[in-house]
Amino acid sequence: MITTSNRINYLTSWNPDARVLEKLNGTGFESLHKLAVSDFKDTSLVEAFVQFYNVDEGCFVFNGHKLILSLQDVRYITGSPVNGNAVTGVDGNARDLCHRHLGSELNSEEGFSKSMVKTGWPRENYEKLDDNANEEKIAQHTRAYVLFLIGYFIVPFSNGKFVPAMYLSLLENLEEIKDYAWGSALLSHLTCSIEKFRRERARCIHGSFYIFMVNWGPYRRRRRDLIPCSIVHQEQVFLCPTIVLCYIKAIYHCPDLVPMQFGVRAEHLKKTFPGLFTLHTEGRGGRAKDWRVYGIYRNHFQMWQNRGNQIIIDSQRMLEQQENQQKEERTAESVRHAYFSTSTCRSTENTLGGNGL
């Protein structure tokens, strides 16, 4: 049996103040505490599922059929934004980051390392918000709550006991939290862990397994008029081959491998991606690295920045074929209508004739 760092049931352990939720309105974080999921103790489904992951092809393969965990799945299932600024930036010291963004002085008794804090530490220290708290206090409690959600849901780390404090640097301006692709970070972190499990036969998979605990229908298309407005503007990235980042974690997102999964015909595909090649990543090491420009990550970051130019659909060709298909459907409908009209008339004539009328 494998173990996981999934701690989604802990999300309900923090009942956030209404003023905190107001600050997070529209970010995707404001509703995570409402996820009603039982404790995920039985990992047999995950264990069986990940055995089908092909590291070389970067996807799951079931009896010759390919399937990926996609940005579309993450957005629809979790509600987390998948298009926006990459979740990356400058690494930093936990004590300095907590002092700057949370107004807190960490001490050794509270359990932290140079770069991490205990995942439960934000709730223990920031769940209660005074009635007369000023804007700065509310902002600090909001950042602490988001760090808590990151550690338990977006990127559950290691055994689930710690969360990297570096994410606090992305939370300085609360108005900009919604601009980051947190769902993309979730996918990158989870996929990297699955790949490590398959390559190294690790005993633990780190990641948010919420997507395995819902009625997942990757080939089921949704009516566009039923898609929330907050999701519609993010649809373009669903069809973009790109590199998805979460600081040191980097994975390929390759919808062109599985066009059927996105309701796209193979003949509509546009060759935009150079294909899979060795994706180099590193261990954290050192301090104060800017993962947007450090080493090979500069190229990874630029590919994400240019994701809008990599959409897999040949839109002109697809539009032409859709128009032809619509003409064929209208012609077929006219033929059916004429046939049934003729058949009805003949049936009526036979009935009247048989009655001697």
TrEMBL record:
Gene Ontology BP terms: meristem maintenance
Q: Which residues form the Aminotransferase-like plant mobile domain?
A: 32-210
Write down the Pfam families for this protein, in alphabetical order.
PMD
Superkingdom of this protein's organism: Eukaryota
Q: What is this protein called?
A: Aminotransferase-like plant mobile domain-containing protein
Q: Which species does the entry assign this protein to?
A: Ficus carica (Common fig)
The organism that produces this protein has a lineage beginning with: Eukaryota, Viridiplantae, Streptophyta, Embryophyta, Tracheophyta
